Fold each of these.
Amino acid sequence: MSALAFVLNGREVEIGEAAAQTPLLDLIREQGLTGAKEGCAEGECGACAVLVVDADGRPGKSALRVVNSCLMLSALAAGREIYTVEALATNGVLSDAQRAMAGAGGSQCGYCTPGFVVSLFAEQHRPDRTGPCEDEALAGNLCRCTGYRPIHDAAAALGAAPDGPLLRRLERAAPVLHAVSVGGFSRPATVGECVALLAATLDARLVGGATDLGVERNLRAKTWPHLISVEAIDELQQFTSTPERVLIGAALPLREIGERWRDAPDAVHEWLTLFGSPPIRNRATLGGNLATASPVGDGAPLLMALDAVLHIAGPSGSRTLPIAQFFTGYRKTALMPGEMLTAIEIPKPLPQSVRFFKIAKRRADDISTVALGVSLDVDRGRVRRARWAFGGVAATPLRVVEAEAAVSGGPWNADAVARVQAVLDKTLRPVSDHRGSKEYRLEVSKSLVEKYYWELQS
Amino acid sequence: MKVVGQPLPHEGARGHVTGEALYADDLCGRFPGLLHAWPVLAPHAHARVTRLDAAPALEEPGVVTTLTAGDAPGEANTGPNRHDEPLFPDEVMFHQQPVAWVLGETLDAARRGAARVAAEYEPLPAVLDIEQALAAGSYLTAPLRLADGDVSVLESSALRFEGELRIGGQEHFYLETQAALAWRDEAGYIAVYSSTQHPSETQEIVARVLGLPRHAVTVECPRMGGAFGGKEVQANASAAVAALGAWKTGRPVRVRLTRAIDMAITGKRHPFLVRYAAGFNADATLRALRAELYSDGGWSLDLSEPIMWRALFHVDNAYRLPAVEVVGRVCRTHKTSQTAFRGFGGPQGMLLIEEVMAQAAQRLALPADVVRSRNLYREGQATHYGERVDDAERMGTIWSQLKSSSAFEARRAEIAAANARSAHVKRGIAITPVKFGISFTAQFYNQAAAYVLVYRDGTVQVNHGGTEMGQGLFTKIQQIAADTLGVALARVRVMSTRTDKVPNTSATAASSGSDLNGAAVADACRQIRSRLAAVAAGMPDGEWREFAAVCEAAYRQRVPLSASGFYRTPDIHFDPRTGRGRPFHYYAFGAAVSEVEVDGFTGAYRLLRTDILEDVGDSLSPVVDRGQIEGGFIQGVGWLTIEELLWDEAGRLATAGASTYKLPSWSELPPVFNVSLLERAAMPHVIMGSKAVGEPPLMLAISVREALREVVAAFGSGVVTFDSPATPERIFFAVQRVRALRPALT
Ligand SMILES: Cc1cc2nc3c(=O)[nH]c(=O)nc-3n(C[C@H](O)[C@H](O)[C@H](O)COP(=O)(O)OP(=O)(O)OC[C@H]3O[C@@H](n4cnc5c(N)ncnc54)[C@H](O)[C@@H]3O)c2cc1C
Ligand code: FES
Ligand code: FES
């Protein structure tokens, strides 16, 4: 297989340098496979969903991951094995997912249906699935017609995955991502190579899961002189948990953080479920989330509450930086030219209490209007350490240090809540936009402190 | 065996789940040499175009040509009635209005070319919302008025109140954006695949722009990936651009709007501003209602006038209004031209009266369901436009059946007790009715034709004027044809909708798709069936055996095996000058009970349970009908809760994408969702005893808004009002307002 090719429904497809930054969806449709459709081009609707054969916790085996092909820049598919809805029926016999959807009234206009079928199929074939298909697996698909009830019923009706070519395929390992270097696109295998490439190619741009870059490509017609994918760098895919710390590779997809960090506090798992949708979490990385420095990003507030330390590699070697010092201005970070994030370290012991709150219009798969990461350690009735870190209330994610001082050393009671709220009144400077008014952002931020207090009591 | 009434899956289901079902833009691969179109979008809400130089676009590699004012051989205007939508405007009327188009070998090339078109503008003052339009006297219509009884009694009512309600619009968000593909056909004329609810009008507009007679234009709608009213008129412009491009270049041209552009340039459900005054008797019956309804029509007329009429027709919802005066007027603003959307003005009219009922209940300290039920229409009563509400007793039946099947009273008591124990998380429950008039209010639209072809092997093709957008029309048509002809379902194929099969069709809209087209198809099938019966009578044993054998015999006897059918809705009329008539063939009824939970700390809510009882007559296709009810309901929930259209000060739509405009997802589906169809509900004089089901269920979602109101009330005291949509932010502040005393921290 050439460096820039992938296998689509069992057939090799050449990407071609010119198409390296074209959304994979376009490439697939140009092959005459029009089941995957563009519904939004923003990773929101799942009409473009396809299946990627990916490594799995089980050695030597693999799993199917749903990804939004509208966001996946084609070059990122290099060396991968991908299946579309067209591959799911075998010799004209519908797969379970297809039969269930068709029989239950799960399709009306049918435009969203291939995407739902793909998500359902992956969920039915999830190796670690016990019990029924989870509704949550479909949270990355939108349907405007059905109101979801019949799709829910279709999901509930699925049993264990029956034997079939794709199930058998998962008994073998996923393709290993090889290093790639062609005009305009590289996929180095080590941090050293990556840093060298960054130094050599001044206008190069790193890419992780492309869930932000893909949107830029589609909405603003953005293209880049040179993209460097960090996906093939083992070091960036690591996950280790020791008594001293948890270390998360900067390019580890969010889904895997949840899978690997089993004994994480509930707040971490809640935070992950509130972050985007399954296809987004199959691709999105913490490195991308922090580097993009969105003021409404969900990564920073929780990581700030956990006192995370960022590992950075660059032309002059490696360094670490507390996350509170990382965001320097609107969409600006402390990364110097040529630097990259390699890992996120969370020191242990973890705080006694940690919570993540997300305020959004829609409960699932929405961007935060306000996010709050909070942690608290209380010793013999006195607050030893507190963190209040907000998203959506300033130009950057904001750790409100004055609010920590307002409570530390004293008891955690209603007065303490009021003192934190008084600090927030003075320090938060939210703006109004389509997600919420500044008044709401401020008031709800204060209210969340109370909610945290109240929930801790009860 | 009869197939009508059987719970069959959607006729297209297999194609949907395999990805084999093709939509307009999936057909691109069939057209070598296809060109792609990208618009040049104006960066002002209102401006004069002072210079437009498209030539630089041609320097961009891959750009083939541009489309500008001089290119249309006919009239470059796509406005359906008033011809008020220039395709290449010299005055920009809304932010992002296309002023020219670029055609390229690839979409990227066209897009790059569009960026190079040199356009200069002189910005003009813009009218950006209803208040500004009222201040500026900016209207698209004269005031429309319906009145009945003596409204002056309002002043002397035992309870009298007035208020103002802002109702947000709604983006259709059909999953398939506007799409058209046009090419020169074998005769040199123009053929178009269009994702349109109204192929005949699309044909008319294409013919107008190209200066061609209509027989030169063939429009085919393969199927749509959703429409909801958004492709009734608004599909025309995309088709016109594709056709003009094909006409100019001789090459096939594809227009497919990206989601961002689709949302920025196509019309939406009308935002409304309503001012009202209501008077109630001490027994909670409504005495008089006076209201002014203003809609934000956007820059051109579109369907805004009949939409306002339907709002005025539906200010009664299911309630008897003894005295009423309602005046509606469409405002002209510098926004997209708002258009049809499931319910067609009805939802906004009904939201007004439900607001009034809810407030009356609060002011009279009565349960809202009591006030509502006291005002429901009784048998023999007529609406404020003089149409008798036939079958009004069905409303009462639905009300009491639903209350008991949903255990309404018991749950309300349980909720009240639970709320008393929970300071910060509370629940609420509400029941609301729906009565919705079925028929196009433009009388001439209430007609349909069909053309049914039977082949010698006994298989059948059915052509009719209706389009399939997911609502299951083709499934119902297939069932009707199969039963009327007396053949198995598998023998009947429903063909895609083409203007060269059935001419002069009406839009598939107003929930009337199966009423009209189903009746026309049945008419054609009956003709064929009776001819075949005569043939069969003359066969050896004088009776039906094999359908195919009868067809073959008929052919040999030179009996025609095709027929066209026709249907016109009887006995409907309305006089806009007097505001009296019988605009609707009948009413669809239903009711819903919804229960929600609100977190007082954040305003976040969850829909916990919904029970619906809907009158669909004798259901033609229960799976389809249930799908319409559930889907319509959830779409209504979106409109009333999380779907919020916001424009910035420049008039730019700030929510022009799926990441900023949130439609219901999985998380909005209530965990308990019971839907039942009213039993023994056959509807006389409608196809096979059925009733329309497309639009009415949307308004069942008002039960969710009212349940939210109940919860907010439980947080404190005072009259609870909030504008629509009831976003978490609005609920948060509504809770803050009623919390006279915030519960002290413990
Ligand atoms: C539908 C949808 C839902 C979303 N929901 C959420 C949500 O709920 N919460 C939220 O916070 N975000 C959300 N996002 C935003 C996005 O998914 C996250 O920001 C994601 O974590 C970005 O990671 P990525 O790997 O895809 O980034 P990419 O798009 O690959 O890159 C983003 C930026 O980071 C840079 N970058 C990537 N990796 C590195 C590295 N190792 N070192 C330095 N720079 C790097 C890139 O150059 C680029 O500038 C959503 C996005 C979509 C499309
Ligand atoms: S097109 Fe909507 S997620 Fe890709
Ligand atoms: S069936 Fe139409 S969007 Fe899902």
Amino acid sequence: MRHRVCLTVNGKAEEFDVEPRLLLCHLLRAYVGLTGTNIGCDTSQCGSCTVLMDGKAVKSCTVLAVQADGCEVTTIEGLAGADGLHPIQQSFWDNHGLQCGFCTPGMIMTAVEILDRSPGATDADVRHGLEGNICRCTGYENIVKSIVAAGARGN
Amino acid sequence: MGRYVGTSVKRVEDPRFIQGKGRYVANIQFPDMVHVAIKRSPEAHARITRIDTSAAAAMDGVVAVFTGQDFKDGGCGSLPCGWLVPDTKVPDRPIVVTDRVCHVGDSVAVVAARTPYIAADAVEAIEVDYEPLPTVVDARGAMDEGAPLVHAEIDDNVSYHWALGDQEACEKAFAEADEVVEVELVNQRLIPTAMEPRAAAAQWDAASEEMTVWTTSQNPHPIRLLLSAFTLGIPESKLRVISPDVGGGFGSKIFHYPEEVIVPWVAREIGRPARWVATRTESQMTDSQGRDHVTVARLAMTSDGTFTGLDVETWANQGAYLSTFAPLIPTALYITLLSGNYKMPGVFGKVHGTLTNTVPVDAYRGAGRPEAAYLVERLVDLAATRLGRDPLELRRHNAIPKDDFPYQTPVAFLYDSGDYDRLMATAADNADYAGMRAAQAEARAEGELRGVGVVCCIEASGPAPSAVAGSLGSAVGFWESGEVRVHPTGQVSVFTGSHAHGQGHETTLAQVVADELGVPIESVEVVHGDTGRVNFGMGTYGSRSACVGGSALVRSAEKVRAKVLEIGAHLLEAAEEDVVYDRETGRVHVKGSPESGKDFGELAFAAYTAHNLPEGMEPGLNFVSFYDPANFTFPASSHICEVEVCPDTWEVRILRYVAVDDVGKVINPMIVEGQIQGGIVQGVGQALTEIGSYSDDGQLLSGSLLEYAVPRADLLPGIEVDRIETPSPHNPLGVKGAGEMGTIAATPAVANAVLDALAPLGVTHIELPLTPERIWRAVQAAGNGA
Ligand code: FES
Ligand code: FES
């Protein structure tokens, strides 16, 4: 049994014919070809796969493609505007907020939501807000710094 | 130095990662590609009595199903071990097993299918009957009389015994000691957990008989060598191995894994590109794991607290098979570090490498050195308690004085340089150690459980002089290659045999070469991770890339400079001794008159036009160097950690973490700080949250991120990082490794702090990780439970 799903990915409306069990992260990676959304686990722990669905950060490995029917999805590839990097991307670059880069798209998408909810997020707010994201490289220091700095600069 | 080395140049690799354009193996896609999935053993030890692949093979979308026999018949050799100490017994490790599984996760059969979902379904449809065999999982228990045998041909489960040190001096120290402290401890098994699960992809060109393999490896050239010489049998000249962007490794991606053979073999067999991507669960149960020691040790000292001897016996769990470098870790990277930062004449250690029904154990960040540091630093704290001395003061009393370098330890190493007293003094200053102790006394008076942990640790980084490695059991050399190719326009391509998987080499190595040549960093591109582009290399581990890889590039850049200078002198019609190469600008000019000179770009162009070169000079401007290090380098650190233990929940809260490291000269302070911070949090993970545990029947109990507790962002309140610099005299850059020091120091720093906090309750030892449950149990056992 297959299903038709229509969703808008990074501003572009697309239609797909999918199995009901297909995960959103796999749809994005294999069908849309957007491989910036990484998959780091299979138990919904790591947050590498975080995207924005109708403006909210979700782990795309916990969403079925059919559940995203009719939704607007933004991935890391669609975050920057025409005028270059998104301020959070820039802040990660400026503050050495990444090493291997694997967790980075998920961290940045989560950061969008953290700063959306509390624009002046403190170090402690950010550490708490990142509870669903794992980074094995940075020890989080510079990720936290990047997000706090982006918030302080008005995102 | 020049313009770039020593400054925090922003990373050139970042734009692709922050925009989601990382080139990871899992992103490789070909139109006709098949997806490979692997049937894995749920049993830790069993005979296979039946495999039925017919239902799987008949499924729609399944392209092929293979069993171990197919791989054997198809010419796949067993996985070799690349480090053999004397009399090592090496169990056979097939790519896919045929009749017996030895650990949970062992590969049993392989599916190739049109989609990953179909491949996963087909794996489920393969029927396997197992006849369970008895299991053993414990490092020391494996040697017990009557313990089940992991491999019948190895009749005591011992792969090797190894010893090093001055046994006579050690015995004398204990015979004459005023005080002796003893400990028995476990250095628990850890699962490296790089965030990118392992993956491999392959494309076979039947016409040219060329194979390209993409793999999540820290060292593509050694993988090509092993594939060619042992496992796949395709000549190196026809085999290209590419490790593109790799999402963290921490050692776990050094080794040659079965899937790196399975995927290209399948691609050739069915004539279509193939890709396999591990699930997290698969990675946790098949990536080589770390640590897993049981150790009994004692430290001898005089009544004034001078250490005189250390006697160590360790049982090191090697798992079911020997992973690529497994015997190296608990031998030449562990026993050799037991002298720590201290003057101690009588150090002696012996180790037993045992086989068990668990995933193979090999290098994980620090690899042997954290095990040594944790042991030594725990013993020093026990000594301080015994003698009633302050642990920092006792360390300073025993530290190797700065004037004693180079310092020969009793366990083979010649330490290059250091100033451990200054290191500890700086840490004490930064932490306000006296203030911390005063605050602790106050807190204790209030009945609070507050502790301060202090450590001074050593690392051996930048392996290794090849002849020394060879004499210790290595099958390969540990030099590095570096090529500096100046193009006719003066642009520079740098080819390094080192491999970056988070370390930022594309930036730091460009800094080095740009300064060596005096060219803008923007004109230097760093290429790594591709055997088709880089001539050879040993890869990245052991914090070797700057020390060894960087030094190879310095040598090549020196050769470039010499040739450019010669061409410059020729074109300026001056004697070579009358011209200079200005390393600030890359210009060659007549001494004293910088205006009459030639730019780097002009001279590079001249080298390629070859219209007017000095007599007998070959055209071109391209140099390769193979740099074999003279010695390891020896970074050191002193970390101070302040903790509080909650007397209700027994949770540990880190109040402050102060780190001072000496990693020699620093190329990029921002990147070095990042390495130290990341390393520290991994070390704190070992102290507080992480354990790779097996049930007695060999089931992995921490097989997903639900059970394996990797540190989260709120585990620490922040880290205060500082450094001192004692340059290494053993390489032209003066650098020492920076990748592992944080991990090595953090585990004992936190453990010492927690045990210091619990001292009033009479607790003297708890096995790691220091979870609330373990702390509660220890407090109960000490008879102090509330
Ligand atoms: S891949 Fe989605 S949370 Fe890990
Ligand atoms: S940068 Fe490697 S996992 Fe975060």
Amino acid sequence: MNFTITRQNLHNGLAAVSASIPSKTTLPVLSNILFEAKEDAVWMSGTDLDVAVRVKVPADVKELGRLTAPGKKLQEITRELPEQPVEVATRGEQIELKCGRSNFKLNGLPADEFPSLAEVDFSEGWTVTGKDVNGLIHHTTFAVSTEESRPILNGVLWELREGSMRMVATNGHRLARMGVPAESGGAPSADFIVPPGALQHVQRLFKDDDTIEVARSGNHLGFRADSTEVYTRLIEGTYPNYDQVIPRDNDKVATIDKKALESAVRRMAVVASDQTHRIRLKFEPGRVHLNVLTPDLGEGHDELEIGYEGEELEIGFNANYLLEVLRYMPTDEVDVAFKAPERAVTIEPSGDNDIDYLCLVMPLRLLD
Amino acid sequence: MARRIQVLPDVVANQIAAGEVVERPASVVKELVENALDARASRVEVAIERGGKRRIRVSDDGVGMGREDALLCMDRHATSKIAAAGDLQGIRTFGFRGEALPSIAAVSRLTLDTRDAEEEVGTRVLVDGGQINSVEDLPRRRGTTVEVRNLFYNAPARAKFLKSVSAETRVISEAMTGLALANPQVTFMLTSDDRSLLDLPAVDDAAARVGQVWGADQSSTLILASHSENGFDLKGLVQRPDAAKPGVRRSYLFVNGRPFRAPQLVKAAERGYRTTIPEGVRPWMFFYLQVPKGHVDVNVHPAKAEVRFKEWPLIEMLVEDAVRSALEGEESSATFDTQLAAPPLVVREGSTGPVAPSPDTQMALFMAGAEVPHEAEDPNGAAAAPELEPGATRARLWQVLHTYILAETRDGILIVDQHSAHERVLFQRLMDSFERGGEVGQRLLFPLTIRLTQTEVEAVVDLEGLLERAGFEVEPFGGDTVIVHAVPNPHRYFDAERAFREMIEELTHGSELVRSAKNQHERIAMTFACKGAIKAGQKLSGAEMQELFDELFATDLPHHDVHGRPTIVRLSKGELARKFGRT
Ligand SMILES: Nc1ncnc2c1ncn2[C@@H]1O[C@H](COP(=O)(O)OP(=O)(O)OP(=O)(O)O)[C@@H](O)[C@H]1O
Ligand SMILES: [Mg+2]
């Protein structure tokens, strides 16, 4: 293997890939990056076995070949190199970097030891825009569960349908669901449960104007735009029927200024219990009262003017859950809909728009 | 009619009294050693032969007696220690009845050698079965030696009840140990058939005495437990929970310097240990009580083995609180240190004899000016968090093996077991919240449908109210199924379904933990803590570790989990220095 590459291109490629390298691993080859010199470009790959990232960087290839070399070290060296072409070459099992008068040789490992990436046939897949996918990821991933007894809930449900797609995440206490219209291009409907880590790589590596091909092979999912590929293991199992638990009869709706509510909740949260983070919202016509009372700590009270005509109702919330949900709401005003103190509360962007976004927060029980 | 009632001759009366006072050789040793201590001896030597059955000799370097007193002391009710009934109230001496010597003399052949500071020459009195046989001059140093031979030679019925030589020897040694613990500043020697059983040179404090008797290994497991309340004062040494073992327990109680038995105080101490030691473990304890005049009656038991307090509940509280607050401190946590110094506990400055008693020393069980170091109490009542490295606003925390959290403190290293620590946090939190009505439950989007056994379902139904107050909203669904609509949410890795199942199983079928609980509330809180706490193997972020650390030190007993295991193990810089050969 022998190629010449600009310092900037080498740096970009390494930066894209090394984020997928595990920081600690018992398998030494996983700390390495796989270089594959092809006709007109060099491919770099990194993986932690769950997710793999592969990028193509332009280079002047003189000799084809493959080799793995330590990712973090290469990245650190490249960061310090002068802005000059870098010549990269194999020297036995070592990789050699020459740039101006700098010269490095690092011990590598044979390319055969590097795990082979999932073979995904992209001709049988879906095509989505970077903007759509990134939007869905951004608005839903925060809600996945961190508790490991139900692995399904550790993933984001991605539903691809004729004409639309959706992502859903929940930990059973709150839920986020977003949908966008999408051209399926004739591909069949499908449901994937995707680890949030993989989606973060997708969000990081694909730009809004990328056209992303998505395809499945066995229990792997691949994402590809022209110079970037992401592969991930899928979480197996059936996602719980979330649709059934989203209330359709929340007949009391309060329209609230998002920023005002956010900062009031944040103030209340200061005095809320460290464990339950419980605050109370009491809705009455034209107004919501926020209350917090934490034994051994103290209490707080606040109120906001809101658009609300329904009857008086008090609901307990985990302030953190409310804040998370509000943070991702894309409009200045939000519609908070509810029915009874123990029932699911939904929060949606308010006003005339076609944003298909819904968050749901389960209340905390009020004990009196 | 002939007169039938007659006054018994003294000899007979003394023999009868002896039945109460002198039960076995150990009673003789106890009475004679007490007399020596009352005479303000600084050294008491006891020699016994054949378990004291053949011979007991007690020598002291106390004030001694003049000739007149040496004869008088053989009479019943002859005492120098009290003059009027009222004197008994604030009694500081062991003796007060004037019965011991005549009782012993009545059932043995007794030789009394003594001399006081005033007389040129000492006195030897020979008594046989209570009859004074001779009185002689005897050159000797100041002090007293009493030798008792052939105990019960004239009371064969009593002699028959004596146990084996080794059994009697053991009881004697035990009795002397108690007195030695009460008087660490006095030298005690016990030899049995020329074998030395106790060799206890005077030391400064009680812990040092414990160390002399049972070894430094044992005394270094003790921590100070002190508490005072309206004139009642308790100083004690109790065992660190991690060092406490099942089996033989050493529990010694002293009131105003006097050993006594009181199972209810041992129980009170055990209450203080509750949730910090497993069931069946018996921590050692040494309590030195000081109560105001008139609050303890020492004259309720023929051998003075028991006392009666005017306010038992107060004394029990004192003991329980002292133990509790000792366990709140860092000293009570487990440690890697091998050469721990026993905590100094000065209990009594010699004994306060009957001669020219100074009121100060009489009232001061503790030596004036003796600093008793003990955890500075936080005004908020919360246990003090360990002192961090100077300059560090937060302890630097490392997670090791995804199980332990390491922190650097001013004095070395703390290792926290994340699961145990979180157990303590959850236990206290739920107990506190029971008091205020209960824990809030997080409603579930997908209620849990849980199948249980019939008995488990019954337990759930029985406990429904309490479970609800713990945050679990459970609905029996008929048959073997329950539906859980709301659950507590103690941390983000909490597996509610598993915790619930395991709790119900443990509550239904019982466990050591469940049995150690005092009531249903504790039972629920303990099982919840145990099943709900962050597990070993859970990777934690820096912020999560910090939060756990802060929460742990906000609990009352941060150093102990609810199973009686340590939450924290300390490694001091001293021990590190020793390990690396820096000292
Ligand atoms: N070792 C001793 N040194 C000095 N005086 C002693 C000694 N032993 C006894 N006495 C004197 O003899 C008296 C009688 O002792 P005895 O033990 O019979 O009665 P007590 O100690 O006064 O009361 P009790 O019967 O409660 O022990 C004591 O009050 C004390 O004055
Ligand atoms: Mg006496």
